[in-house]
Write a structure and sequence with these properties.
Number of domains: 2
CATH topology of the largest domain: Rossmann fold
Strand content: 5-15%
Helix content: 40-55%
Structural class: alpha/beta
CATH architecture of the largest domain: 3-Layer(aba) Sandwich
CATH class of the largest domain: Alpha Beta
CATH superfamily of the largest domain: Glycogen Phosphorylase B
Radius of gyration: 21 Å
Strand order of the largest sheet: 3-2-1-4-5-6-8-7
Length: 390
Amino acid sequence: MPKIVNKIVNIVGARPQFIKASLICKGLRESNIEDVLVHTGQHYDFNMSDIFFQELSLAQPDYHLGIGSGTHGEQTGKMLMEIERVLFREKPDYVLVYGDTNTTLAGALASSKLHIPVAHIESGLRSYNKMMPEEINRIVADHTSSILFCPSETAVRNLQKEGFSSNIVNHGSLIDNAYRLLSTIYWPLVVNVGDVMFDLAIEVKNRVAEKEVLERYGLEPKNFILVTIHRADNTENKDNLRNIWDALIEIVKKGITVFFPVHPRTKKVLNELNMLNKSIPEGLHINEPVSYKEMIILESNARIVITDSGGVQKESYFFKTPCIVPRKETEWVELLENDWAILAGADKDRIIDAALNSYYNNKIRDWKTFYGDGKAAERITNTLISSLKR
C-alpha cells in the first residue's frame, strides 16, 4: 500500500496561479495536510504578485526563489535548479503545478525527474499552436502528471485524443460515490473537476463593493471596454502591438471609454514604441495593473473585453461579458462556438469591427455551465486526499 501523503508542495509564480493556489492551500490546511508554498518569482511586480497574497489571504511563500525575468531557457533553467533544491529538502508526497507558465513547466519537470507525483491543475487546455510557449508548457506538464485536473469537458476530450482514454473520472461520479472509484483506477488519472477560477470569481464578486471600484477609476457600469494585453505574440511582435494600440485609439475616437491596465511587459514595449509619450485621447484610460478583486469587478461591469489572456477570457464569460481576442486561436474553444468570444488576431480593422459590433449589439447569447458549479477546489482536495489513502 502507498504511504498516506502528509505533505504537498504547491509551485506558483504568476497571477492566475496565486489565485488558484489560494483555494487549494486553504482546503489542504483544513484537511490537515501540510502544504508548502513555493513562489518562483516569475511575476515580481507588486500588483502582479505580492498584492494577491494579501487580497486572497494566501500564506506568505515558504520559499521565494526570486527568479525574475529572462529568456524562456534562462528563466526555466534557473527555476529547475532552485525547485529541485526545494524538493530535495522537503521530500513531498505530491507536487501541485498550475496553468501553463514557465513555472508550471519547471515544477513538473523537476518533480518528475525526482519521481515525485505531479498533479496538474487546469489540464487539457490546447490551442494547437506550438509556436506559443504556453502550449509546450501545458503539454509537457500534462504528460508528466499523475493526476490531471481538467476545468471542462473540452479539456477532457483534448486529453482523450492524446491517449488518456481508460482512466477518466467524471467529477459527479467522484462526489456521488464518495471517491470509492479511485481504488480501481490506474494512473495517470484524469478528473473533470470544473474550474477553480470560477469558484473564487463568484465568491469575490459577491463581497466586493462594485460602486467603489468603478468610481475609483471613473467608470460607469456597462459603459466601457476593458483591455488586457500581455502575450508574447503581441508584446514581442511590435507590429502586432502597434496594430492593437491603433485599434484602441480608433475605438476611443468613436466616443467609447476604454480602460487599459498595462502589464509591465506591455508597458516596456509601448515605451520603446514611444506610444505612451504621444497625445492619448481622453477616453483611453491607461492604468497600472489592478488587483484581482478590482479585475473581477471590471470584468463583470465592462460592456465588452478585449484581451489576449486565457484567464481573462474565461473570467469574462463567468460574468456574461463578450470578449474580443487579438490572437489567432484560443484554448477556450467552447466560447468561440457559443459566440461569447471572437478571434480577431492582431488585425487593426478586425479588432475595431468586432469591438464595435459587440459593443452596440444587444444579441442574446446562450450561457452554459462549461466550467462546473463552483466546487472545483473542493473536488481537487477530496480527490488528492482519496488518492493518498489508496
